[in-house]
Amino acid sequence: MESGESRSSSSGRHIVYKDSSWFSQFRNGSNPWMARYVYALIFLVATLLAWAARDYGRSALTEMERLKGCEGEKDCLGAEGVLRVSLGCFTFFITMCLSTTGSSKLGEPRDSWHSGWWSVKIPVWISLTIIPFLLPSAIIQLYANVVPDLFFLAGGFAHFGAGVFLLIQLISIIKFIMWLNDCCHPEKCAERCQIHVMLLATTAYVVCLAGIILMYIWYAPEPSCLLNIFFVTWTLVLLQFMTSVSLHPKVSAGILSPGLMGLYVVFICCEPTGGSCIRKAEATDKTDWLTIISFVVAVLAMVIATFSTGIDSKCFQLRTDDVQAEDDDVPYGYGFFHFVFATGAMYFAMLLIGWNTHHAMRKWTIDVGWTSTWVRIVNEWLAVCVYLWMLVSPIIWKNRHAAEST
Predict the structure, then answer these.
(1) Whether 64 contacts 133, CB under 8 Å
(2) What global pTM score does this model have?
(3) Staple partner for 344: which of 146, 196, 306, 352, CB 3.0–4.6 Å?
(4) In this structure, are residues 256 and 181 in contact, taking their beta carbons and an 8 Å threshold?
(5) Domain residues for 359?
C-alpha cells in the first residue's frame, strides 16, 4: 500500500512538472531538472562578474583601500578581483554540495533544498559574492597560493581544484565517447548506421588533420619555434597511436572513438604560445571583434561543459550493479552536481588569470600564456593515457583472471 502511494505521489509530481508553468515550478521548487538551469545561470553570472572585475575592476575598486596592497603587481588587482568572485562562487556551491550530498529520493528535505528555496539561496549567493571583497588580501592569496601538504605540484588550492575539475571533465568526455562508440558497434548497428559511423569518423579525421595543418601554419611559421612544432607533431603522433591501438585485433574498438578523441586533443592543443611564433600575434595586440567572439564562445563552452559534467555522476560510480531505478529517485546526484560547479568556480578563475596570479591578461582574453599552454598540453597527454587505459584495461583484467583460474 505504501509503495502504491509512493508511486502515485511520484506520478503526481511528474504531472506537476508537465502541467505547471516554469515560473510556478521555480517558485515551488518542484522540478530538479529546471533547477540545474538556474544554477548554471548563477555560474555564468559569477563568471561574467569575475571577468568584469579583471578587465574593469581597477577603475571600480580603486577606492577600496584594503585591495591596494596587492604585492605591487601591475595587474594584481584584476587577478585578485577574479579570485574574490571565484572564492564566493566556490563557497556557495561547496555549501550546496555538503547540504545535498546523500539525497536519493524526490520530496525529501534535501531535494526540496536543492530544487527550491530560491528566495533564500539567491541572497546567500549574493552575500557570499560580496563578502570576499571585504576580506584582506592575505586571505585571497591563501586561497590562490597555498597547496595542501598532500600535493606536491606547484600552485595553490584554487589551482588544485581547477585541476580536479579538468580531470572530472576529461573522464566524463571519454566515457561519453566510449558510450557513443559502443552504441555504434557493428554488431549492434544496421548497415545504414554503419555508413553513418564511417562518415562521422571520416569527418572527424579530416577535421583533425585540418586543425593540425592550421596549427603548423599559425603557430610554427619558423623552424626556430621548436616547442610549438613539438606540441603539434606530438599531437599528430598521439592521434595515430590512438587509432592503431583502437584497431588492434585484441581491442577492436573501431575508428569512431579515436577520431572523436582526436577532435578533443586537437581542440586542447589548438593554441600554443610564444610571441613571434604566433603568426597572428601582431593582429592580437589590440582587441577586435574576433577576440571578443572567441572570448564569448570560450565562456559559454566552459559553462556548458560544467553543466553537462555536473549531471553525469553515473560515470563516476564505482559500482555498476544493474539496479532498476524507481520513479521517486532523484534524476542526478545533487552533491556531485554542486561539487563540479564548486571546482568549476576555481577553473574559471584560472582561465581568466592564465593560471598565474601575476600574469598580465589583456582585455577580452582567456586562457593565454605559457602556464595555460602547459596546463592544456598536460591535460591532452593525460586524456590520451586515460583513453588508452580504458581500451586495454578490459584485456588486462581478462588475462589476469584467466591466469588466476588456471
Answers:
(1) yes
(2) 0.79
(3) 306
(4) yes
(5) 24-280+329-399
